[in-house]
Write a structure and sequence with these properties.
The protein is mainly alpha-helical. The chain has one domain. It is built from 5 helices and no strands. It is elongated.
Length: 183
């Protein structure tokens, strides 16, 4: 967890140097409303996972029937879809992990607790790992670039509200020196 904290501090420093920021009112609005934005994302993500799994199961069945039919005619199947299906299932598992982390973040985000922000940050890190793993499995530089772009944009908005969840070091006002009576 210490590594995640160091990464948070490093990224906070990077995003602080970005030359453009949301207006103060925009950051405040986003920090107050991020919980329901995440809730909508969780619902849409859950529906997407259900539809994806159904589509993948259908595609697996079609692929199996194709292999069986070409073998029946004595033709060697030219399609090797085992790696493609591996990539699909790995990506679904990562996506489920991200959705679960976001679901766990909703209540603390609503209460504007740092734990909610931390869970969103962790979901972003899992998404980054997912993007790298999928890019390696697919040997796709484009996938890696898309992941980097998505993380840069998502990280921008996440770190724009960082201070609203206790993420920024707050400067404490110096206590005035006690008045001493002059003699």
């Amino acid at each position: 967890m210490e590594l995640v904290k160091k990464l948070e501090v490093t990224l906070a420093g990077w995003y602080k140097q970005v030359p453009f920021h949301l207006p103060v009112g925009g950051r405040k609005w986003l920090s107050e409303n991020v919980w329901w934005i995440v809730l909508i994302g969780v619902i849409a993500g859950a529906l997407s996972i259900i539809a994806s799994v159904q589509a993948f199961l259908w595609a697996e069945q079609v692929s199996r029937q194709y292999r069986e039919s070409v073998l029946y005619y004595g033709i060697t199947p030219t399609v090797n879809d085992s790696m493609a299906m591996t990539v699909v299932w790995v990506s679904v598992l990562f996506y489920v992990a991200v959705i679960v982390l976001e679901l766990l973040a909703i209540s603390p985000l609503r209460a504007r607790k740092k734990r909610g922000w931390n869970l969103l940050f962790l979901a972003m890190l899992v998404s980054a790992i997912s993007g790298v793993v999928i890019a390696v499995l697919q040997t796709s530089v484009g996938s890696l670039l898309g992941t980097a772009l998505g993380l840069a944009i998502g990280g921008y908005f996440l770190f724009e509200i960082h201070s609203h969840f206790g993420g920024a070091q707050t400067v404490k006002k110096a206590k005035p020196a006690p008045h001493t009576a002059k003699k």
